[in-house]
Amino acid sequence: MTALTAHLKLLEAESIHIFREAAAQFRAPVLLYSIGKDSTVLLHLARKAFWPAKPPFPMLHIDTTWKFREMIEFRDRTAREFGLDLIVHTNHEGLARNINPFDHPPSVYTDVMKTQALRQALDAGGFDAAFGGARRDEEASRAKERVFSFRAAGHRWDPRRQRPEMWQLLNGRLGKGETVRIFPLSNWTEGDVWRYLQQENLDVVPLYFAKERPVVERDGQFIVVDDERMVFEPGEKPEMRKVRFRTLGCWPLTAAMDSDADDLDAIVTETLAAKLSERSGRLIDHDQAGAMEMKKREGYF
Amino acid sequence: MPVAALNEDIGLAPHAASAPHTGALLRLLTCGSVDDGKSTLIGRLLWDASGVTDDQRAAIRTASVNRAINGEKIDFSLLLDGLQAEREQGITIDIAWRYFETPSRRFIIIDSPGHEQYTRNMATGASHADLAILLVDARHGVKRQTRRHAAICDLVGIKKVVLAVNKMDQMDWSEDIYRAIDSDFRALAEGFGFTEIMTIPLAALTGDNVVQHSENMDWYGGPSLLNYLESVDPEPLSIDAPFRMPVQLVLRDGDFRGYAGTVTSGEIRLGERVVDARSGLGATLSRIATMSGDLDVAVKGDAVTLELDTDLDISRGAVLSEAKRRPINADVLEARLVWLADEPFDPEMGYLLRTATDLNPVTSMSVSALVDFETLASTPAHACGVNDIADCRILLGRSIALDLFHDLPLTGNFILINAIDGSTVAGGVITWAQSGAPTVGDSVFVLDRALLARGLCADLGDSPADQAEFHRRAQEAAILLRSVGVPVLIEI
Fold it and tell me: Which of the residues A99, B78, B290, B351 could staple to A94 if both were Cys, CB 3.0 to 4.6 A apart?
């Protein structure tokens, strides 16, 4: 057994407890897999919770068609390696309307290709519970999130109607029309996630590691050009720059950062010394005040 | 890595490889109202202990100017305002969770609103904490609110408290004031089960004794708040406690059949006897399985899967125990609870009792008293509503395995669930439980149809309305009897 940093072992045990409580109480759970580092930890903990059996639920990926190519490769490889059922869902209606991150504001794009897509996939699969990798340290409205987060019919989140959670007792009784989002990583921080990846020696998408990549600079943020769909502003042309991603979303909406950190040890060191918050590289969160809270009310994670 | 280096310093039993180091993570509750400067204190702690990033700092500086609450100064409380509704109203509605770490420890701050109408939120937050920081304003000293906060912390099992005497700057850094408040609080806390009380004089706005030692209070030789939080021991691993593991799931894979759960107290080793508390059936522990490798011993806090040499035919809800000191099998219990739901307790409503991993319908329930947490006085009652602390008696249709909260908190606590909409209506601690079912013919008073029809319900006929009234009267009679301590079964 690897010697986990002491507090990571406590967090791991707490997350396993949450996975098991959910699997025991819900009829049809699904694991929201978004390919990033948090999803990697989430999936690893799910495997630990039910080992030697496989996790008793499939993985679901909402594919906006704007994920980095390396992310998709990583996703397919991961599902194969662990022998897990992978459901991939795209909002084809949105695709047909050509909703994309260049011609539409981030809020519209995110609503159609992520939030609506997620609702479609959960409804189509008849899932009553979905595990997500959200952490309370990410953003202000998430700091008040429950471990079992209840959603009314239509997947709406009402912060005033959440259930109190006392001690280790998680209540999974659903009311009429309700579904639930489950956050096993609630008490983890970004630093914990990286230290855990390091200590458990887990693979992550190579985009997290620093490398020369084609980049354009916009409003002080570095946008990596992933394929020919990139729409350049007048005068813009990509130049090579050694960057990595601290957080991964859709490629034109997630900024990269200057970094020389090209392995997990270097990333852990860099993350623990970081002077900017993690989501500062997520362009959709800056769209308007209370942006995340709005998205959650509409059914985003 | 500083955090890894810390491991060396934590004294642990020889089986340290498997034992969670409870000292590496401290969950602390902050109680007090905005008026006491609570948000400022937490904000200051995060700000000075580097729990705040540069972009957050910049945003807070901008927002402080926009709100212009304290002129040029930084409004630390802005770090904590989460939801839009809260920002608009300038209040805190819900518990907020904050995270920071120092080279010696990882911290979780559970920030709960302090006003009286938020007793439920405070109790909820407190139930997750190892330690509570009770904030008092040096100008006002210990108030009724302080007593209520201390009582709630005690109710949910917190053993260690810090009394943070804030705004010392406004009392000329007076040692006499500090001493008076300290002794008032110690007198108040005598009736509670706290094992450690630390009183720290500080000023959140100026930062005195929050992270840095204050130069304004030479007379105080103790630690700053952060120094104390970095060094305090959470409850030590109690290896003497009896072993308990509530079963969450039965895991099967080919020939493998194991009971998955988290050890809630004590420890268990390979080859030891394990008993299903309810049936009394025992088996020998043959394997402790985890994906990272098998263990020789599982201790409190470990999430494991236990394989036994014989199949006990048990499922979720069972409590695995050591052979000697077993849980109580009980179907009548007394408890103290905090009512969480907006809808008041309704004896006609169906409730479910959720203990560790077990879920059982409540046959009948009655409230016997309400506790005033500011005076600590108890008054007989048979109703309770949101934010009330009540003593109650619960009867179940079958006996379940449980412990008294005082002995083993994680198998002695529960929540009550509304059977119709699934909502959590109360959380409580078991104070007394009867081993062996009180059955008909025992010391239980049976309210049957014939008895009721003879007198109390003699005027009622067979119409649906009359029958509904018959049931109502039966329930009311049972409530009255139970409120004076008579166990009652209704059989109509």
Answer: A99
pLDDT at A50 over 50: yes
B401: helix, strand or coil: strand
- The mean pLDDT value for B254-258 works out to 94
Using the Cβ of B53 and the Cβ atoms of chain A, whether some distance falls under 8 Å is answered with yes
Q: What residues 443-462 of chain B have any CB closer than 8 A to a CB of chain A? A: none
Per CB-CB distance under 8 Å, the chain A contacts of B124 are 164-166
Mean pLDDT of chain B: 84
- Subunit contact A178:B422, Cβ cutoff 8 A: yes
Cβ(B361)–Cβ(B350) below 8 Å: yes
Q: What is the phi/psi pair of residue B354, to 5°?
A: -105, 110
Least confident of A121-135, B317-331, B333-347, B442-456: B442-456
| Structural domains of chain B, with CATH | 2-231 (3.40.50.300), 244-322 (2.40.30.10), 328-435 (2.40.30.10), 445-491 (no CATH)
Please report the ipTM that was assigned to this predicted complex: 0.89
Region A6-194+290-297: CATH code: 3.40.50.620
Sorted by where each begins, the domain ranges of chain A are: 6-194+290-297, 204-285
Looking at the complex, report in whole angstroms how far the Cα of residue A116 sits from the nearest Cα belonging to chain B: 23
Considering only CA atoms, which of B332, B345, B335, B374 is closest in space to residue B489?
B332
CB contacts of A187 in chain B (<8 Å) are 97, 99, 108
Which residues, numbered 70 to 109 in chain A, qualify as contacts with chain B under a Cβ-Cβ cut-off of 8 Å?
A: none
pLDDT at B186: 96
